[in-house]
Design a protein that fits this description.
The protein contains 23 helices and 17 strands. By secondary structure, the chain is an alpha/beta fold. The strands form six sheets. A five-stranded parallel beta sheet has the order 10-13-16-9-17. Strands 1-3-2 form a three-stranded mixed beta sheet, with helices on one face. A hairpin with a 5-residue loop joins strand 5 and strand 6 (116-117). The longest helix is centred in the C-terminal third of the chain and has 19 residues, at 404-422. The protein is elongated, with a radius of gyration of 28 Å. The two termini are 54 Å apart.
Length: 506
């Protein structure tokens, strides 16, 4: 694995004896090709598995090469192909096996009794087999459903070493794993928006964020429902398309996080790391780079509660993925790119104490707290949503407000309008400046209102485009073709932090 991509490794075996017709007194197995510790230990696992399954083991000095030799090999997934290579070298796998050996990529960890244990990266292995124009893959049985999600190849799951040997020797046929069914609409959020009382304006803002794929931050005191609304958000998002489900499954497969026996991940991811998480945990990295939380939230929601409490360096690392949709990690050995097209939903209190500023002292505390967030980061967040404390009367009402079903209908109808206008999988949050000029042409009062806001709030060019994108989404929510000054005014209203900073400066 390199990032979430699988690279091909060829297993070569050679057995030598000390003299012609003689055998080594102490048979040895040597692994070369830049293996890590878990790969070097394969020799013991493979020898025990072969012996316990009744197969012969190498009798002389056996050298196993993992090619290419300059690529570092990690993990126990080489056990099964090493065992297969040894058995071919010893003639247990005959010439009839060569056709299938040439047509299949093989991976799996071996237990000492010959059982084949699951691995990580089965989906990526299936993508590799398809790109290499192979017939298919042989993987552990528990990994077969996730590999079968990749169309165009045959996937065979094996539970034991003997099964793989019998299939390769064409002693019997196996039934290929069926591809998972089409993804049904997920709509499986942990909460329903009806459980959030008295925040109808904030609910509308969350529906706008879901419809346009916009990043959003909620600012309000503790107990006002910010976390509840964030956790209810996946329930109103459009369902994953088959291609998106494959992307998500591939990322989780690369770290072995696909539920055993499961196929496609059918629901949009929701990730909520603690504010003590390191930059590498948020954006990915490590000595062996792994995807971080922002990549694990690909095509889903990344929720950062108490945003100012996160390390400043971790938040600044989010600027690239929020803008470009991917994370680039550079190491001396090479550069990796992880997908990270996610919706950022953040929440914060106005001050460290929790409430909105009232006195001059509280305003200074508010300025200091909000000042932990950099301007460039806030520029990449489309909606700043003010969430006020819920009055007792709203809590006491028996009739709930907007439900997830109601908001979901608004979101899906708005996405439908976007799809007709700009194509599938192109929500308004991803529109370029040129596309915005075409679909959000402003004239008259709307143009003058935005010009005035830019001047008075001191907004950047990036914020100018984000206001237009949000206004375009508001018009789609309302079912109106052209963007009016009312839509611009509502979009400007969702720049709370810009207004707070300008008011403080004044």
């Amino acid at each position: 694995m390199r990032g979430i991509d699988a690279l091909p490794v060829e297993i070569e075996c050679d057995e030598r004896f000390s003299g012609e017709g003689s055998e080594e007194k102490t048979p040895r197995m040597s692994l070369v090709g830049l293996p890590d510790v878990s790969v070097r230990e394969s020799s013991q696992r493979v020898r025990a598995a072969l012996s316990n399954c009744g197969f012969p083991t190498p009798r002389g000095m056996c050298t196993i090469n993992l090619a290419p030799a300059d690529l570092r090999k990690e993990g126990p997934l080489y056990d099964l192909p090493i065992a297969i290579a040894l058995l071919r070298m010893q003639g247990v796998l005959g010439e009839r096996a060569d056709e299938r050996l040439a047509g299949f990529a093989i991976a799996g960890e071996l237990a000492l009794d010959g059982q084949v244990r699951p691995i990580r990266g089965a989906t990526s292995l299936a993508f590799l087999a398809r790109s290499e124009k192979l017939r298919g893959v042989i993987v552990p049985r528990e990994n077969a459903p996730e590999a079968a999600a990749v169309a165009g190849i045959e996937v065979y799951g094996v539970a034991r070493l003997e099964e793989a040997v019998g299939f390769l020797n064409q002693l019997y046929e196996m039934t290929p794993e069926r591809a998972p069914d089409e993804c049904p609409p997920p709509f499986g959020a942990a909460l329903d928006f009806s459980e959030v009382r008295g925040q109808e304006a904030a609910k509308r803002a969350m529906a706008i964020a879901a419809a346009g794929g916009h990043n959003a931050i909620m600012i309000g005191p503790a107990g006002s429902g910010k976390t509840m609304m964030a956790r209810a958000l996946p329930g109103i998002l459009p369902p994953l398309t088959p291609d998106e489900a494959l992307d998500v499954t591939r990322i989780y497969s690369s770290i072995g996080a696909v539920p055993r026996g499961a196929g496609l991940i059918r629901e949009r991811p929701f990730r909520s790391p603690h504010h003590s998480a390191s930059p590498a945990a948020i954006v990915g990295g490590g000595s062996t780079p792994r995807p971080g939380e922002v990549s694990l939230a690909h095509h889903g929601v990344l929720f950062l509660d108490e945003l100012p409490e996160f390390p400043r360096v971790a938040l600044e690392c989010l600027r690239e993925p929020l803008e470009d949709g991917f994370v680039t990690i550079a190491r001396a050995s090479g550069t990796l790119r992880f997908p990270a097209r996610t919706m950022l939903i953040a929440a914060m209190n106005p001050t460290h104490a929790g409430g909105f500023a009232g006195s001059a002292t509280e305003r200074r505390a508010q300025d200091k707290y909000i000042g932990r967030l950099s301007g460039p980061l806030l520029d990449r967040i489309d909606l700043h949503i003010e969430v006020r404390a819920v009055p007792f009367a709203s809590l006491h009402l028996a009739r709930p407000g907007a439900t997830s079903a109601t908001l979901r209908t608004l979101v899906l109808e708005a996405r439908g309008r976007m799809e007709v206008r700009q194509g599938r999988s192109r929500p308004n949050a991803r529109l370029s400046g040129r596309e915005l000029d075409r679909v959000c042409a402003l004239e008259g009062p709307a143009q003058r209102l935005l010009e005035s806001a830019m001047r008075e709030l001191g907004l950047s060019a990036r914020a100018y485009d984000r206001i237009r994108r949000v206004a375009r989404t508001i018009a789609d929510i309302d079912g109106i073709e052209s963007v009016t000054d009312a839509h611009i005014a509502e979009a400007i209203h969702y720049r709370v932090l810009d207004r707070i900073r300008v008011g403080d400066a004044a």
